[in-house]
Specification:
Elements: E1 3-6, H1 16-22, E2 30-32, E3 36-42, E4 75-77, E5 83-85, E6 87-88, E7 101-102, H2 103-106, E8 120-130, E9 134-143, E10 145-150, E11 153-159, E12 169-175, E13 178-188, E14 194-199, H3 205-222, H4 236-249, H5 257-268, H6 274-287, H7 292-304, H8 329-344, H9 351-363, H10 393-409, H11 416-436, H12 451-465, E15 469-470, E16 473-474, H13 475-484, H14 500-509, E17 527-529, E18 538-544, E19 548-555, H15 557-563, E20 574-584, E21 592-598, E22 612-614, E23 620-631, E24 643-647, E25 651-655, H16 661-664, H17 669-672, E26 680-684, E27 705-706, E28 715-733, E29 745-753, E30 759-762, E31 771-792, E32 802-809
Antiparallel strand pairs: 1-11, 2-8, 3-6, 3-8, 4-5, 7-14, 8-13, 9-12, 9-14, 10-11, 10-13, 15-16, 17-18, 18-19, 19-22, 20-21, 20-23, 23-24, 23-25, 26-28, 27-32, 28-31, 28-32, 29-30, 29-31
Helix pairs in contact: 3-14, 4-5, 4-6, 4-14, 6-7, 6-8, 8-9, 8-10, 9-10, 9-11, 10-11, 10-12, 12-14
């Protein structure tokens, strides 16, 4: 049995010191005295009883602030009455980490006693001088049990049998200005005996930033045409909202097209569950758009309908998972997070609601075992999914987080009889985590599932409580190291639950809970250039997307040498104008002139870049080149100099951020589709398992109909149970996501309505745009037949192609 006790930081709002720690700022300006060690002392109970006192502990009063510390000349009666005194550990007097201290070697052996080190205690002492009050983050490892005093006061202990591990315990020592006294007790059960103190490991900030960028890029490129990410229809609004919140927390700007699409989707779709309402609160609080506070108030009212008498929340009354007529801690956690976000956005939350949140969390905490406890022992009690359920790590971090939110947001306004239980509940939950938490599994859960909820929950608890150490761990270093080792090459983490594992990992790495205002932007703008090895006369560069900045990087050395005027070497040619042209890289596209920059040809160009800013009209690959008109020196006065045109190679740009009002309106199309709710009979030339023909009208842009690869003449037929009047037929690519911009898909084909003459159509090559076929006037439609006659990015018969949705609109 292991028992760990810790005099941790107070449960309160983030202090300035903990904010600095959250930012990874290491305290400096302390000096370390040498380690002094004394022992061995007989300790018959071994590490199971750290409370047995020995003579060095009588000097604790001399280790208070302002005191001189213990008398290092004093002698003691040690094991077998051996005369012992303080010894100085050689080396490293000015370093925090002097390496491992082998107590079997630095302490005197007991004459005539074999295995004298077994069941023995030793003490280590050193001073730490701090230039100012500060927190010092250290790891301590011990073999076996460990007890720590700082400035004469008990600070930490852990009764455990183990070998010395450099990172066994993660502690934060609150140093005072001037001399600080650190006393360590190490109790050995048997075998090896030692101690080590070392600094916390610094997170790999560059690696973390790269991992976040990869994960964010995956989520950005996986968004669907309607602003959602697909998935279960009952969860789509909530999932999209939580994804938007995650991206915003990672630094994606509010005006990014993905955020705009996501916002349009959130506002266009109802709230089928408490989870959706709470996730929308999180997203809207970050978006802070016009009318969002009123929307947040309405969402809070919607959540109230699903509140249960015990302070928990059920999924919904009539929507998603309405058959589950009980509340649970998972839903209640999201409610608490949503309420906290709303409160921080300026929306009023009644104190009685915070009290109900506290009651619900406490109802799910394991009951006390009833055993009396004295001193500093804290009973370890975790939280379960519902009252009486087995505690798990994911639910314990949820319960601790909820109580911390109540403690912060309600404070004195919470019911007086709940103040004590809230504080005790937090301490008991943290004690349970110290004993059970693991990065590799959701402790307590039979299958270990929902592990990422447990991992993100540690960040949430640490951020809310201002604790850089949770469960005796340097949680950010350990967690980020664990996550970095498990990220896939495409930026994801294992995603059995859709994208949620990736979102939770990103929220952990970006320290979303403890983040300060003003998050940095995510990553650098994309950059472009003409091929480096091309022998072109003009070199181009570009940066950004929508808009993109394009400029002339330089001219070839041969062109400069030929066109510079005599006597002006190094000043550059005389340039009259630069014209930029762009061609969308799709079949049938026509090159267009996009900009002209004029200059004074009477003076040399020097380092002028002739830059332009241009917004491309559509997403996709664009080929840009420039034509630079130079003027040679006139052969005689009054005669115009010869004009020479230099042409660049093509510069390829990948544009992904174009969005307009028509695209934002896609968020409502699934609900406007006239085929919605009708009985349909579908037929197709072929189909793939999982991508069947009926999915072209299911309202989910994450599903599709695709023909089989050998099918060289794919077709799809839809027969309606009754005719409907429509003006427009809309076709959506089978993979309507930037992630699949280069995938094979239909390009041209024929449409027959009611078996009449075919209408030719050509798909917009942008996967994030629908192709609208205007029928000219409202037409009664009873049947739809689509034939694909030409493919983009492939050849019919060699690829699986089809549509995500076929829609009819008035």
């Amino acid at each position: 049995m292991m028992h760990r006790r810790w005099n941790g930081l107070p449960i309160a709002l983030l202090t300035r010191a903990s904010v600095l720690l959250a930012l990874g700022i290491t305290a400096r300006g302390q000096q370390y005295g040498p380690w002094h060690v004394v022992g061995p002392f007989e300790h018959p109970a071994g590490y199971a009883n750290l409370d047995q006192r020995h003579e060095p502990e009588t000097a604790l009063s001399r280790m208070r602030p302002g005191q001189g510390g213990p008398n290092l000349e004093r002698r003691f009666a040690g094991e077998e009455r051996l005369d012992i005194g303080w010894r100085t550990v050689a080396g490293g007097a000015t370093r925090l980490d002097v390496g491992g201290i082998d107590l079997c070697k630095v302490l005197p052996a007991v004459p005539g006693k074999a295995a004298w080190e077994d069941l023995s205690a030793a003490y280590l002492y050193r001073t730490i001088h701090a230039a100012s009050a500060r927190d010092l983050r250290v790891h301590m490892g011990s073999d076996d049990g460990l007890k720590v005093w700082l400035n004469g006061a008990w600070f930490f202990e852990h009764s455990v049998g183990r070998g010395v591990g450099q990172f066994d315990e993660a502690l934060v020592l609150p140093l005072q200005e001037g001399a600080n006294h650190l006393l360590i007790k190490v109790v050995n059960g048997g075998g090896g005996w030692g101690f080590r103190m070392s600094p916390w490991r610094n997170p790999k900030h560059a690696a973390v930033a790269e991992a976040v960028d990869r994960g964010v890029r995956h989520l950005l490129e996986s968004q669907l045409i309607d602003g959602s990410w697909g998935g279960h229809r009952g969860r789509m609004p909530g999932d999209a909202a939580f994804r938007i919140y995650s991206l915003l927390e990672c630094g994606v700007p509010r005006d990014h097209p993905v955020i705009q699409r996501g916002r349009a989707f959130l506002l266009a779709h109802e709230n089928p569950s408490v989870y959706a309402c709470a996730a929308k609160l999180l997203a809207l609080a970050e978006l802070d758009g016009e009318g969002d506070r009123q929307r947040m108030g309405e969402l809070m009212a919607s959540m109230h309908e699903s509140e249960m008498p015990d302070g928990l929340w059920r999924y919904s009354v009539a929507g998603y998972n309405a058959h589950l007529d009980r509340g649970d801690l998972s839903n209640a956690l999201f409610v608490a997070l949503g309420l906290r976000a709303a409160a921080h956005a300026g929306v009023s939350v009644k104190p009685s609601l915070w009290s109900r949140v506290a009651r619900g969390a406490l109802a799910c905490q394991a009951p006390s075992d009833g055993e009396p406890r004295t001193g500093r022992t804290v009973e370890a009690r975790g939280f379960g999914y519902t009252p009486g359920a087995i505690p798990t790590s994911s639910m314990t971090v949820a319960g601790v987080s909820m109580l911390a939110i109540v403690d912060q947001e309600a404070g004195a306004r919470v019911l007086p009889r709940l103040k004590g239980p809230v504080q005790v509940g937090i301490r008991c939950g943290l004690a349970w985590l110290r004993e059970h938490f693991s990065w590799d599994t959701n402790a307590g859960h039979g299958s270990g599932h929902h592990n990422f909820f447990s991992i993100y929950g540690i960040e949430r608890a640490g951020g809310l409580l201002g604790l850089p150490s949770v469960a005796g761990r340097d949680w950010y270093w350990e967690g980020s190291d664990w996550l970095l080792k498990r990220q896939a090459a495409n930026g994801t983490w294992s995603e059995p639950s859709g994208h949620v594992e990736t979102e939770l990992a990103l929220l952990f790495l970006s320290r979303a809970t403890a983040s300060l205002t003003g998050r940095p932007g995510r990553g650098a703008a994309p950059s472009w250039s003409t091929p480096e090895d091309a022998p072109a006369e003009v070199r181009l560069r570009g940066s950004g997307d929508t808009p993109a900045t394009l400029w002339v990087e330089g001219l070839s050395a041969d062109a400069v040498a030929e066109l510079e005027w005599p006597g002006q070497r190094g000043l550059g040619p005389h340039i009259e104008r630069v014209d930029y042209y762009a061609l969308r890289n799709v079949p049938g596209a026509v090159e267009g002139h996009i900009a002209r920059v004029e200059a004074d040809p009477s003076v040399p160009s020097g380092t002028t870049r002739f830059a332009i800013r241009h917004s491309f009209e559509a997403n996709g690959t664009w080929l840009v080149h420039a034509r630079v008109v130079c003027v040679r020196k006139p052969e005689s006065p009054g005669v115009a100099g010869e004009r020479v045109e230099l042409i660049s190679d093509e510069m390829e740009l990948s544009v992904k951020s174009v969005i307009d009002s028509e695209q934002l309106a896609y968020a409502e199309d699934a609900q406007r589709n006239l085929l919605r709710g009708l009985e349909l009979v579908t037929a197709a030339s072929s189909q793939i398992a999982g991508e069947e023909r009926w999915k072209v009208r299911d309202g989910n842009y994450g599903t599709r109909w695709h023909c089989e690869k050998p099918d060289a003449e794919p077709w799809l037929k839809i027969a309606l149970e009754r005719s409907v009047r429509a003006r427009t037929v809309a076709l959506t690519h089978g993979w309507p996501s930037p992630k699949y911009a280069d995938a094979a898909r239909p390009f041209r084909g024929e449409l027959r309505l009611n078996g009449k003459e075919p209408i030719d159509w050509e798909m917009d090559p942008d996967p994030m745009r629908k192709t609208l076929i205007d029928l000219g006037r409202p037409t009664r439609v009873r049947s739809i037949e689509l034939r694909i006659t030409e493919e983009l990015n492939g050849t019919l018969g060699g690829d699986a192609v089809g549509f995500s949705e076929v829609e009819l609109f008035r």
